[in-house]
């Protein structure tokens, strides 16, 4: 039985009076930074495009684009495997879908401008690797929609000023963030970002912290674990980062388990104030140490992204190893803090990340991993780097990210690699270590295992779990 995580704290020690006040002050500063960032609300202009999404048959959709100003093309960002070409059908006569090198376009066949077009969209038969699913079947007669793949782009690569209308089938609801309604009109995400929207018959469960939607097909032990783990993990992460999410998060859990008894697949996707989990494989029906361990750590990993998103940039792409590796490392610290792991398990988890990193650097550098689709390098090597940084500054990975989120939240463009390295330098006062991290990231290593050893040696102290610090 193979456990797969696709994508996708510390024990309490006695603190002196001064340290408690330092932690309190840090938390207050972060809260102020987050509130200040929320206060910088830009004026919302009337929409240039209205996208009306109607649920037709379970996960099949009817999508209509209405344009305020006539255009020659609707431009959409690239999707792997020719998804739109295979799963979209333009219904308005005289239009066609063009698949170009870096984008897809809907145009009139005569080249003239237009102001309205309608298409039918169906879910893919297989998951797109390392991409949000445009539409995913979600329980019986339900669908999870990622608005980003239906949101037209400008000619310069930004997103158009767009609002969405969502109309589910009769008797169903639309669920997005803290809203659950018979329909949504002129809707924009409160995060000004692409979002997950559910349409279907399931009723969400709202708590003081989150709004959850759990597939009834999920095994009872998964439902119970989800209900128990989520509040504990959220409370812990709020302590680690020093603030709670400003917008009540959505947590979605789908369980199209299938009949493959040997499969135990956990796929997680995170967005600002949202994350969704998809469990596949009949092995999830069995409550085992392996299945429980994968579910707990992977779910905490996805939850960490909710806090990291307070520091994510609005436009520029950031190297995924920075946040994915840290999310894995902070999740490991959380497993210890919540009493779910001991010291041996914590060290074993790091050894696994280290081995995964070495294996995935056999064919190129970490900097080039995304381009060559070596996605597991982002997790394993990012985890190694996060732990190396924590060693160098004699703190936990969570300590670094509490400060990093605060600093990045003050930046208009969020964070990038330069700010990441600058923060390491400020916190460690060790330029040599910073250069060692840069070198590790950008260099193809003839012996990746030895390169990892050198990086860790440059950080100094040996690995210990948060409980041992």
Q: Your description of this structure?
A:
This protein is an alpha+beta fold. The protein has 11 helices and 20 strands. It has helices at residues 17-39, 83-87, 220-241, 289-308, 320-337, 343-360, 375-392, 397-409, 417-428, 431-442, 448-459; strands at 2-6, 49-57, 60-71, 73-77, 88-90, 95-99, 103-108, 114-121, 135-137, 143-146, 162-167, 173-176, 179-181, 184-187, 196-200, 205-206, 211-214, 250-254, 263-271, 274-280. The strands form 4 sheets. The protein has a 6-stranded mixed β-sheet, covered by helices on one side. The chain has a 6-stranded mixed β-sheet with strand order 5-8-3-2-11-14. A 5-stranded antiparallel β-sheet has the order 9-10-15-12-13, with no helix packed on it. Strand 16 (205-206) and strand 17 form a beta hairpin. Helix 1 (17-39) runs parallel beside helix 8 and helix 9 runs antiparallel to helix 10 (431-442). The model is unreliable at 1-42 (pLDDT under 50).
């Amino acid at each position: 039985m193979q456990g797969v995580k696709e994508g996708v704290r510390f024990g309490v020690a006695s603190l002196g009076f001064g340290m408690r006040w330092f932690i309190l002050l840090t938390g207050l500063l972060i809260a102020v930074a987050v509130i200040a960032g929320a206060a910088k609300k830009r004026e919302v202009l009337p929409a240039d495009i209205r996208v009306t999404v109607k649920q037709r048959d379970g996960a099949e959709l009817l999508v209509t684009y209405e344009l305020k100003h006539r255009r020659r093309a609707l431009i959409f960002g690239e999707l792997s495997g020719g998804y739109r070409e295979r799963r979209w059908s333009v219904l308005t006569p005289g239009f066609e879908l063009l698949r170009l090198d870096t984008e897809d376009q809907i145009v009139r066949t005569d080249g003239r401008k237009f102001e309205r077009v309608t298409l039918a969209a169906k879910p893919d038969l297989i998951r797109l690797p390392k991409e949000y699913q445009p539409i995913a079947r979600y329980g019986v007669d339900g669908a999870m929609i990622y608005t980003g793949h239906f949101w037209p782009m400008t000619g310069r690569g930004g997103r158009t000023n767009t609002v969405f209308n969502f109309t589910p089938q009769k008797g169903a609801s639309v669920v997005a963030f803290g809203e659950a309604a018979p329909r949504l009109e002129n809707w924009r995400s409160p995060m000004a970002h692409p979002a997950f929207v559910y349409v279907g018959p399931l009723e969400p469960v709202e708590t003081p912290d989150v709004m959850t939607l759990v597939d009834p097909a999920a095994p009872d032990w998964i439902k119970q674990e989800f209900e128990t783990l989520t509040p504990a993990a959220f409370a812990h992460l709020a302590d680690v980062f020093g603030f709670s999410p400003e917008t009540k998060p959505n947590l979605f859990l789908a369980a199209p388990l299938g009949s493959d008894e040997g499969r135990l697949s956990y796929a997680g996707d995170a967005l600002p104030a949202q994350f969704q989990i998809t469990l596949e494989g009949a092995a999830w029906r069995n409550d085992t140490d392996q299945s429980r361990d994968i579910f707990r750590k992977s779910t905490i990993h996805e939850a960490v992204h909710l806090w990291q998103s307070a520091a994510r940039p609005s436009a520029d792409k950031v190297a995924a190893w920075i946040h994915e590796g840290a999310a894995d490392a902070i999740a490991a610290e959380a497993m210890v803090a919540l009493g779910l792991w001991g010291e041996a398990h914590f060290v074993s988890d790091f050894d696994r990340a280290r081995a995964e990193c070495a294996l995935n650097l056999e064919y190129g550098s970490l900097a080039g991993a995304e381009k060559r689709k070596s996605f597991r390098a982002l997790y394993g090597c990012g985890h190694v780097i996060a732990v190396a940084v924590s060693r160098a500054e004699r703190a936990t990975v969570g300590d670094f990210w509490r400060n990093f989120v605060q600093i990045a939240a003050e930046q208009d463009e969020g964070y990038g690699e330069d700010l990441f390295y600058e923060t390491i330098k400020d916190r460690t006062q060790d330029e040599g270590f910073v250069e060692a991290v840069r070198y590790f990231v950008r260099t193809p290593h003839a012996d990746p295992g030895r390169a990892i050893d050198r990086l860790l040696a440059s950080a100094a102290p040996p690995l210990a779990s948060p409980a041992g610090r």
